[in-house]
Structures are given as C-alpha cells and as structure tokens.
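== Folding task for one protein ==

=== Format: two labelled lines per protein ===

==== Paired sequence and structure tokens ====
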Amino acid sequence: MAKTLRKKSVPATLPEPMPRRVDPCVATLVDKPPKGPEWAFEVKWDGYRLAVHVEPGGVRAITRGGYDWTKKFGLIVAEARELGHASMIIDGEVVVLDDQGRSDFGLLQRAVGKKPSLHDVGEIIFYAFDLLYLDGQDLRMHPLSERRRLLEPIVVGRTGAIRFSEEVHADGAEFFKIACEMGLEGIIAKRQDAPYRSGRRPEWLKIKCARRDTFVIVGYERSTVPGAIGRLLLAAKKGDGLVYVGGCGTGWSNKESVQLRELLDAIPAAHPPVSLKRKGAVFAEPLLVAEVEYRAWTQDGKLRHPSFKGVKVRNDDTRVFSIDDLADNPQ
C-alpha cells in the first residue's frame, strides 16, 4: 500500500515587533549636490522632524529628541488613524507654509505655541517621506526605493494635514539652483539603494541655500572669554536711519574675536545707533560693516542663522543691506 504523502505547511512570516521609538536618520551637510543615478532629491523642509506611530491602541507623534507631541498635532494624529493600516511608522517633517508655499520655521514655532483648538485647518502639515514599519514588517533594512514604493499609495494625493514629500529625479545641481532661486532652505539628497540607519549618515545629504549681504555693526555683547566678543549686533538701513536685525555669534576665530572687540572699543557710541534695550550691549559708532552669510529672514525682520565672513570700514560706496531690499526680495 503506497504511503500517502503529506504536504508540509509553509509557516507564515512571523510579525516583527514594532519599535517603541526609532532614532531618525539625519542628513550630513555638504557643499554641493552629489551626482549619479543612485541619488534622488527632495525639498529640505524647514520644520520639526516627526515620526508618526500608528498602533492598534492609538497614534503617537514622536519628535527627533524622543518627546511625545501627540497632543500638539491633533489633526495629524486624526488623519493618521484614517490611513488604512493597523500599524506603521512614518518618518517626516512638520511644517507651516507661508503664502508662497515655502516652509517657515518662525510660523511653525508660533503655531505650535497655540492651543490645539486654535489651529487653523491645514495650518500645520506633516510631509511624509519615509516608511519604517508596516503591518508587522520592519522595513528599515529595505532600500529607500522600496520603502517609498510602499509609502506612496498610503499618502499620495492627500491634501490635508498629512501629505507626500515628492521626490525629484533630476540633475542635483540644477534642482539646487532652482530651490535657492525660489527662496527655499535647500535640498536633501538620498541614495535609493540604502537601508534606513539611525544617526547622521552619508546616505542622506543636505545642501543648504545661503545668502550673503553686508550689515552695519552697531555694537557687541561680551564673550565669557576675556577680551573677546560673544555676539556682533547688526543693523540694516531704513530710510536715513538704522534698524536692528539681530546678533551674529559665529564665524570668527578666537584671534579675530579679540581683534573685533579692539576695533569696536576704539569707536564707542555716545548714543545707541539703534533702538535696542539689551542688557550687556556695548554700542559702537556705525563705522564698520560686516559681511554676513545667513539662511533667511524671520517674520519679525531678524537674520536667521547668521555667520560672520569679514569686516570692512563703511564709506559712501559700501553696499549696506536695506530693509527695503527685504520687500523686493522676500524670504
């Protein structure tokens, strides 16, 4: 009598445990975009990094530093419940857009400071750009192209609080040029064949747009280092006068810091050149200008992330940034 052959059952793939938290992959700053077909590009969003955890028991919104900000982002959390999956981790950036569609960190800070009930519908947006976990499967060792392929049908086409961060397959240098001309913060380059690894990684690169102008030095704040400066106080022209545009505390060596203080101490101001009440400010006659590289302007007319690049004596031919220029070339 022939033996009856019994088929061996193929075990189903066991679900992988969902991480309680994933340290984010962080892009490395470089000077120019990489070249090659393995790279794709995205807009660099100027906001808060956020991981949205969808679980059977609820939704959590976790910041880059590991803080639970679920209550701050009620609309995002509500929409995440409707994405059609029992469990997933979506990586992305929370932003607020200005009237020209650019992410504005100052607007975001003010929006996050409001009570959730005061948020305008669509004001705070979560741009999703990566999928780390989906319905029992940890996707972090999959290539980015595969993770994006799985993410796209979940969020693409949405126009509410959760949206898809589009990817651009183009020449990186050309895309970067266009991004800067549009007043964006910069671009992100990502290797399509790379897995997701936490920490600062060379598989993700960030290239920032920078602006450079000259501003009048109206004083300084002392450093904790004896004889040095902690921050330069800067001003721009407004009509026939000057208006304070913020302080700059980086970009010089220790030696240059001491030399700057000596220069400014030699030209003390009898009266403050700008309207500024700041404890510890040492005012100088507005005879020197600083060349400053900066990222953008804040909503209240201050320089964002300024860095000192040089100093020269102010004269009639010196091109000093005017507040009128801000109206002609907004952020």
User: Anything to note?
Assistant: The longest strand covers residues 281-294. The chain is about 15% helix and 35% strand. Residues 1-12 have pLDDT under 50 and may be disordered.
